[in-house]
């Protein structure tokens, strides 16, 4: 059997590796446009901020490493066509167009950065950050800049804005919506983070689309906002999200939903022998009970695990998602899972909220840090979302809440749960418990 | 209504505070032998090691603070009798014996340190550590010592041994059993911790009971082990656990089990209007489905919450326990929940184990630390225990596993769960997932 995988990102390459562990015989080919494979795009901002010292550090494996596992990775290869009746793809490498037959095809085509409509977007110094090469180019360009503007205040946008600040640039972070991290945080929690970014010297411009980028000698120099104000911008990063790449899926005849390719819980598309994983597919939301996009590396990796099982003839299901996330910017760690209050309201779910400022350690223990926790429950008290910001120990608490939401626990149930305690590492009553107790009180 | 609470530790004082929040009218009296109330005994080792600078720091509230809440705390008061027919207690304060009537009586009498049978245990310089005064006396004595021996290598024993080392003493930590932390860790995991303690310069003596303490001029000088070897000991700490204090419970006519007072899930004893919480009661084990003792501060605090609800006429249940714990010694954080493999085997439960060494952050991220995880499942793959040791981020992972065990998840289910990821704070596949995948493989 020959499995052909289009795309060398987390979804594609993990499918290849997992499948090889399950089946030593199957022929596996991975085709990617990129000139590298198996690196961590999530780590690019941390290389820019010099927290990680080199782009080389974030490359995990080479083409030779895959060859040793009998996985054929073809770099700088563009797949241009799919014929799902013939079970054949067309690809171009070094200008030569060829075809390849498959028994099973995996579309792991990811997403392309969304470019918002604005004048001057083609000027030199305007970048997206998706690949390692993008990262390298940005780093090089930034070294000759005094100012930078990042548009889009999602995770990547914030991380990159902070990195530029660490590089010594004058930095503007702007977001069309009236708050940062709109997908994962409510406005009140986002504000804690915004205040921190401002404290770190970043100009944060909210609720203002950019209408134009102005240049000199073909190089970007300034950004103009809707209200006419301007910001210095010797470089501009478009961190305005990605859209699923659907061209090949459409050629293959795969059904697509509102945002991306439709797959079942075994990662099969609607076309026989064509599968898909990663940023190019839709996921099923565990809370909304409808489709959503989950463009997270962890989602791609978990989908790849399921797909490898499917291709190896084993039974495995990809579960509905909660889109749990975490990030760290400077000293602040922030994370979220499930629905925000805003999103619940948009979906006509009555939200009951508990919000507390607790501590990361016993009150009397040195270096106890404030921990802000917000828990969102539905009208029955079932937990449907959580947001946490603190200088430490956020990620694992998000995981606990992910499990609580998956198990459909109520705030009442969680408030009686056991939490491990020692003065150097936690409070005798955990911040999560204090938060769900706050929610519980509202049901009295 | 008058509620009389005997004991001012976590169980007693939390019952008082929680009850006051629920009922402004009820009369609340707390009687304690101690000369302080509302301090954190778990923090005493960290004051000894100077991580916390003063014993004053770990006192949370004074008698006046409680008076302000209309809670009457009587210090240095010994309750000597209970007549549950008359609903009356007898107590002695400043040599004067008096009686007090109650409508509801709460026994939060805690435990007394177990003193193992050995010669010389009455020598000066032999201490137990239970109260703040014990802590102060130990600190004062230690300042004139060159060597110290701690017997009992549970959490408190280890924390105190480490504290003495930080004070510059020659330290011996000894344990009758062949491993440290026998209640929570399997021998292989305990060894990681033992190696670290040895690396820190602590002499660890395992599998050797002390037969005799030798003194000079009435002061302890040496400990003699069963095999005849000796260790220097200018002071000795008995950290050999506590036994529930049952005298008053027996006077009241409460039924006791093998170890402690029997209570139902609303914290009522078998005698009408007599309740009990904390180290003096038995809990129900969620896994073994039989009684156990859970002498943890967090258990006392959670029981107090339930009892306050009961006393206020509200419905609340105290859930079966898993005895989740965490501690930090020097740079190492270690935690556990549920059954160890050893304990499972003693209870004829067939255990299937996954053990991995992963990392606390992405491999390429600076300061990623090794994280040792051991997961124990039963023959169906249901998770029944977990042990973790690392330099960071242990406690919250124990909490996630506590929830997984409470929900009776299998290793297969947990391996498909979402975990939040960002390179500075976690691995793309969480160490817990890697561990449960290891277990899952054994079922193929």
TrEMBL record, chains A, B:
It holds the Pfam family Pyr_redox_dim. One of its GO terms (molecular function) is oxidoreductase activity. It comes from the Archaea. Residues 1-304 form the FAD/NAD(P)-binding domain. Its EC number is 1.6.99.3. Keywords: FAD, Flavoprotein, Oxidoreductase. The keyword Oxidoreductase applies. Its cofactor is FAD. It is an enzyme of class 1 (oxidoreductase). Residues 330-427 form the Pyridine nucleotide-disulphide oxidoreductase dimerisation domain. Belongs to the class-III pyridine nucleotide-disulfide oxidoreductase family. This is NADH oxidase Nox.
């Amino acid at each position: 059997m020959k499995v052909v995988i289009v795309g060398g990102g987390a979804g594609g390459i993990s499918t290849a590796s997992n499948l090889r562990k399950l089946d030593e015989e199957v022929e596996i080919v991975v085709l990617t446009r990129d000139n590298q494979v198996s690196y961590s795009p999530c780590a690019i901002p941390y290389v820019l901020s010099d927290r990680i010292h080199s782009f080389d550090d974030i490359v995990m494996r080479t083409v030779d490493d895959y060859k040793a596992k009998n996985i054929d990775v073809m770099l700088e290869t563009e797949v241009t066509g799919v014929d799902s009746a013939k079970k054949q793809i067309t690809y171009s490498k070094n200008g030569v167009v060829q075809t390849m037959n498959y028994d099973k095809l995996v579309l792991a085509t990811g997403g392309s950065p969304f470019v918002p409509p604005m004048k001057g977007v083609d000027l030199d110094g305007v970048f997206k950050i998706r690949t390692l090469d993008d990262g390298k180019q940005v780093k090089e360009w930034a070294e000759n800049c005094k100012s930078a503007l990042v548009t889009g205040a999602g995770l990547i946008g914030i991380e990159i804005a902070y990195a530029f600040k660490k590089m010594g640039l004058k930095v503007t972070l702007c977001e069309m919506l009236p708050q940062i991290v709109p997908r994962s945080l409510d406005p009140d929690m986002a504000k804690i983070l915004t205040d921190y970014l401002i404290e770190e010297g970043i100009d944060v411009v909210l609720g203002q689309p950019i209408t134009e980028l102005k240049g000199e000698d073909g190089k970007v120099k300034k950004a103009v906002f809707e209200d006419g104000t301007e910001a210095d911008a010797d470089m501009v990063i478009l961190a305005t999200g990605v859209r699923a790449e659907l061209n090949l899926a459409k050629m293959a005849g795969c059904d697509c939903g509102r945002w991306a390719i439709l797959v079942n819980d075994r990662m099969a598309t609607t076309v026989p022998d064509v599968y898909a994983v990663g940023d190019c597919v839709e996921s099923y939301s565990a809370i909304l009970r409808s489709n959503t996009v989950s463009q997270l590396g962890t989602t791609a990796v978990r989908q790849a695990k399921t797909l490898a099982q499917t291709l190896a003839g084993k039974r495995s299901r990809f579960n509905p998602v909660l889109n749990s996330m975490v990030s760290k910017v400077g000293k602040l760690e922030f994370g979220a899972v499930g629905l925000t209050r805003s999103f619940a309201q948009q979906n006509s779910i009555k939200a009951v909220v508990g919000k507390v400022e607790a501590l990361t350690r016993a009150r009397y223990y040195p270096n106890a840090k404030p921990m802000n926790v917000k828990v969102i429950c539905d009208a029955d008290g079932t937990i449907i979302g959580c947001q946490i910001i603190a200088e430490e120990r956020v990620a694992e608490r998000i995981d606990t809440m992910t499990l609580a939401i998956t198990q459909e626990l109520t705030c009442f149930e969680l408030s009686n749960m056991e939490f491990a305690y020692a003065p150097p590492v936690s409070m005798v009553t955990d911040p999560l418990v204090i938060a769900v107790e706050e929610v519980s009180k509202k049901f009295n």
